[in-house]
Inverse folding.
């Protein structure tokens, strides 16, 4: 995968993960499904991107994780948005909106 | 959780982190399977699909690991572990590599410690760059002492220095405890101590005016009985017990210890043990010809070496006018500075103190550093070659790693890590080696290097070693990459796909070996020239028979032996008893021990010789005071006339012997026998030569080396002590310190007890100093060139060995690689001798290329050491031929071994092998 596309995706992916977790804690697969759902199936996040991103966000202090029983009584690692993560979500969202607005405006002319 | 915290957790709790990751991914897999089963997929199918969707569990883990904090350290640790495993797997390679590096880096660190301690590190005085050493110059003596009046005048009229002081160095006998010992002394005035800016560790230094004497000229006036001990002497001789204010016995005289110098304080590398008052008489402005001190000045703030030199030149222009003495006035007051011309002149000159101390030896030290640098280069080339060979056998390993996803950068890191692990190990062990080597060096040659006190492995040396190790590791570690490239590696998986790469690499390896040989030739040539130099120095005709001579020095302190005749009689008595020892054939004593002693440069009236501006001045280089049997015991041939006889001692007409150079200088074409001469303006004389009797020449002795075996012999004037003590009162004298010489078949160790018994029976307070045989005296006089030759020789030997190993390595590798081809040729009936010849030809042609390049290099580089050579030219054909012969022989042996292995190959075995 060429690097440029990766970095673009990475920024987006972080935002999407934070957003997906803003409602409730989820495990990895749950995050993936939630993103699929909220983007209307536009983004299907591959595990090879998802798990590194989750771990990176956790190391940055935006997520915490703990083991909890899952819906069908298995144990799974659940990720929860931290206070800093929520702040980060707000920042990234407004940044994204600005970019989207600017790009949209640029494409309209 | 912060990134910083994660970093440490990832490094320290790796197992936990890994377990967690594994559990998380497994749980995800199970969840995925559940999800698929729920949506109606059969279980088996669901598992397959889930595995597909999740991808390889291991590569997924790796992707997660890559994002973790501390991943760089992680990779490094992984590389390290991998490297260590690799190195353990090939212990032979690892051992050879580490030994090579240890020797290479260790030698470099050791020599750099010397460069650092001796040349680079500033002296231990405050603002040492302000300190200047002042000496005088005569046409025949590029560096000479300053006379006290010259010193006083300079101190008064100069404007560049804030302080100028005077000193001389010598030895005194210290009588402390049961065993007297001779110690090294610095005689200084208070101005000198304040110029140096030293502070006492205890007590005080000499106070203003305290080091001076005031007496009528000609009257003996000993300086005040005070002394400052060096810290080291205080520790060794007095155990560090409180001593300030107490008296010690120096040359039989009780002197009060007023202070202790700080540890490591020295003066002009004299290895000073005691500091004593110089005892100049400031009223003495007349005896200008008695040059006896050196000066050290501290430049004023703002003055530079340049500005001070300019002032010196200006002062010398009209010195006489400035100090009120008409130049050219004959007699005692005639010595006034005048600008140098070819044949005449006498000037004051200066040099920074550090340059003066290090001066002559710095070239030798840099030569050594260059030599070890070359050795390290050869070692690098050798290791690069070894690694190249290894890289070839590791082709598949690299290719597999590339196929598994290791990038070019990762492989580069791997190579660098391998190089660094080896070189850092070599560096660490090398430092230990350097430490041991330095200690051995200083112990073996305590006086051959200046400032040995400052030679140590300090942070600068550590930094140097680290930088050298790193650079070395990168340099040879990356060698395998030079021709490999990851593309070549990938194709190495399918065998035979990298023929071009292999050929190119063979050239590279041949080139490296040729370079090693070239560097080795340069080093061996240099070493051979230096060894020839030492041989020439050792075999110089010193003018006397140096075999079977044992010598020692002793002092009869004038305080206990006031009359010169008392001293002479005591010496005579000692000599008689020594002659009676069984195994001793003869004994004598003299003031200055050949072949290396300081010159006297004594102004002398020489009848039938008039000094002209074109010819040499009326000045004799060496005065030698000898006891009876001198020429006979030393084995110095008398070429004309006769030597001193016992009867001369009582005769009233003073007799003299001069050397051949004296005759050739002053009385060329005349019969020297019966000519007359007399000392002029000798120390302590009231006026000119009026009180001094004329000496009549009775004999001419063969030239004896005086200022070192490598120097031209100077003019020499022998006086007979037995007669001088009976001459007119003003000229009665006998040296207090004499060198006794015995002609004997016994070694010094055997004689020492008998000698001690004889001397102690006469005076038990007198120490016997420097008891050794004459061979030892000669060895010491050339210890510096010998040290240089030995070290460069050792480095050259190492270079030769490495180059031989390199040649051998490349050829054996070639033989292994071409086993099949050689096997087929042998099977087809090829002559074994031709196989040998062919392989040896390869080795010898590499040698020819290397040797040619090396010779060219040697001719250029050896000119740089021309000034260190004696009796041999840098382009000496015999030496160069010998070096080529040696190199060829070594290369022949190194090539013959693999060639023989090739010839012994059994075609049956080889061909079945493949």
């Amino acid at each position: 995968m060429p690097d440029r596309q990766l970095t673009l995706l990475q920024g987006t992916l972080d935002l999407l993960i934070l957003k997906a977790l803003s409602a409730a804690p989820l495990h990895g697969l749950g995050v993936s499904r939630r993103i699929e759902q909220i983007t209307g199936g536009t983004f299907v996040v591959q595990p090879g991107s998802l798990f590194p991103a989750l771990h990176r966000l956790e190391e940055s202090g935006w997520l915490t994780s703990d083991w909890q029983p899952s819906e069908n009584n298995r144990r799974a690692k659940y990720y929860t948005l931290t206070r800093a993560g929520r702040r980060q979500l707000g920042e990234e969202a407004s940044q994204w909106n600005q970019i989207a607005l600017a790009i949209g405006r640029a494409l309209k002319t | 959780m912060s990134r910083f915290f994660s970093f440490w957790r990832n490094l320290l709790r790796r197992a936990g982190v890994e377990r967690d990751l594994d559990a998380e991914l497994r749980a995800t897999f199970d969840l995925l399977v559940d999800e698929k089963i729920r949506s109606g997929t059969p279980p088996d199918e669901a598992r397959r699909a889930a595995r597909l969707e999740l991808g390889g569990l291991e590569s997924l883990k790796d992707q997660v690991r890559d994002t973790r904090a501390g991943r760089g350290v992680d990779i490094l640790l992984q590389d390290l572990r991998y490297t260590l495993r690799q190195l353990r797997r090939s212990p032979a390679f690892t051992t050879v590599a580490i030994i090579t590096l240890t020797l290479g880096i260790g030698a470099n660190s050791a020599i750099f410690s010397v460069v650092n301690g001796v040349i680079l590190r500033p002296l231990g005085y405050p603002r040492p760059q302000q300190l200047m050493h002042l000496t005088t110059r005569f046409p025949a003596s590029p560096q000479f002492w300053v006379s006290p009046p010259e010193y006083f005048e300079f101190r008064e009229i100069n404007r560049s220095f804030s302080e100028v002081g005077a000193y001389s160095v010598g030895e005194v006998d210290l009588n402390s405890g049961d065993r007297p010992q001779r110690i090294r002394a610095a005689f200084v005035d208070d101005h000198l101590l304040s110029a140096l800016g030293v502070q006492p560790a205890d007590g005080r230094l000499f106070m203003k005016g305290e080091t001076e004497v005031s007496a009528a000229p000609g009257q003996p006036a000993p300086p005040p009985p005070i002394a400052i001990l060096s810290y080291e002497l205080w520790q060794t001789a007095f155990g560090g017990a409180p001593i300030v204010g107490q008296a010690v016995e120096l040359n039989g005289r009780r002197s009060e210890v007023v202070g202790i110098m700080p540890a490591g304080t020295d003066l002009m590398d004299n290895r000073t043990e005691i500091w004593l008052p110089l005892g100049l008489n400031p009223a003495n402005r007349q005896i200008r010809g008695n040059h006896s001190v050196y000066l050290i000045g501290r430049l004023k703030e703002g003055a530079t070496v340049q500005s001070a030199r300019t002032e010196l030149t200006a002062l010398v222009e009209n010195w006489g006018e400035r100090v009120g003495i008409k130049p050219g006035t004959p007699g005692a007051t005639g010595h006034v500075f005048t600008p140098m011309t070819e044949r005449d002149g006498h000037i004051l000159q200066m040099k920074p103190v550090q340059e003066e101390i290090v001066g002559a030896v710095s070239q030798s030290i840099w030569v050594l550093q260059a030599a070890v640098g070359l050795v390290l280069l050869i070692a690098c080339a050798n290791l690069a070659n070894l690694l190249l060979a290894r890289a070839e056998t590791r082709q598949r390993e690299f290719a597999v790693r590339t196929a598994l996803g290791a990038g070019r950068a990762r492989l580069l890191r791997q190579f660098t890590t391998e190089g660094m692990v080896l070189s850092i190990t070599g560096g660490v062990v090398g430092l230990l080696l350097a430490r041991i080597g330095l200690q051995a060096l200083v112990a073996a040659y305590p006086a051959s290097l200046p400032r040995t006190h400052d030679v140590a492995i300090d942070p600068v040396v550590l930094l140097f070693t680290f930088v050298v190790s790193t650079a070395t590791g990168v340099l040879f570690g990356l060698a395998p990459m030079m021709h490999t490239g990851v593309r070549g590696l990938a194709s190495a998986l399918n065998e035979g796909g990298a023929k071009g790469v292999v050929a190119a690499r063979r050239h590279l390896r041949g080139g490296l070996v040729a370079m090693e040989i070239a560097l080795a030739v340069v080093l061996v040539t240099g070493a051979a020239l230096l060894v020839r130099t030492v041989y020439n120095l050792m075999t110089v005709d010193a003018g006397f028979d140096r075999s079977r001579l044992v010598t020692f020095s002793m002092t009869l302190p004038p305080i206990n032996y006031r009359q010169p005749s008392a001293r002479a009689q005591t010496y005579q008595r000692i000599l008689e008893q020594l002659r009676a020892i069984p195994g001793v054939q003869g004994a004598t004593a003299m003031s200055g021990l050949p072949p290396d002693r300081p010159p006297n440069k004594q102004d002398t009236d020489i009848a039938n010789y008039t000094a002209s501006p074109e010819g040499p001045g009326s000045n004799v280089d060496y005065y030698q005071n000898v006891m009876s049997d001198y020429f006979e015991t030393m084995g110095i041939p008398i070429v004309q006339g006769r030597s001193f006889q016992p009867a001369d001692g009582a005769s009233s007409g003073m007799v003299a012997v001069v050397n051949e150079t004296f005759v050739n200088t002053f009385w060329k074409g005349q019969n020297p026998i019966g000519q007359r001469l007399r000392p002029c303006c000798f120390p302590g004389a009231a006026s000119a030569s009026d009180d001094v009797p004329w000496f009549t020449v009775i004999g001419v002795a063969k030239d004896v080396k005086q200022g070192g075996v490598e120097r031209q012999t100077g003019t020499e004037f022998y006086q007979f002590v037995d007669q001088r003590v009976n001459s007119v009162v003003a000229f009665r004298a006998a040296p207090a310190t004499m060198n006794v010489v015995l002609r004997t078949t016994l070694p010094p160790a055997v004689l020492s007890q008998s000698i001690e018994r004889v001397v102690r029976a006469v005076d038990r307070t007198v120490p016997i100093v420097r008891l050794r045989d004459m061979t030892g005296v000669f060895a010491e006089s050339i210890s510096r060139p010998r040290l240089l030759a030995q070290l460069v020789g050792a480095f050259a030997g190492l270079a030769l060995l490495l180059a031989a190993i390199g040649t051998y390595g490349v050829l054996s590798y070639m033989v292994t690689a071409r086993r099949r081809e050689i096997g087929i040729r042998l099977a087809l009936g090829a002559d074994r001798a031709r196989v040998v010849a062919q392989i040896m030809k390869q080795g010898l042609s590499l040698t020819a290329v290397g040797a040619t390049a090396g010779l060219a290099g040697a001719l250029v580089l050896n000119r740089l050491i021309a000034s260190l050579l004696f009796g041999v030219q840098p382009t000496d054909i015999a030496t160069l031929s010998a070096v080529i012969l040696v190199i060829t022989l070594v290369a022949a042996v190194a090539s013959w071994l693999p060639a023989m292995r090739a010839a012994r190959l059994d075609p049956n075995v080889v061909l079945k092998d493949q």
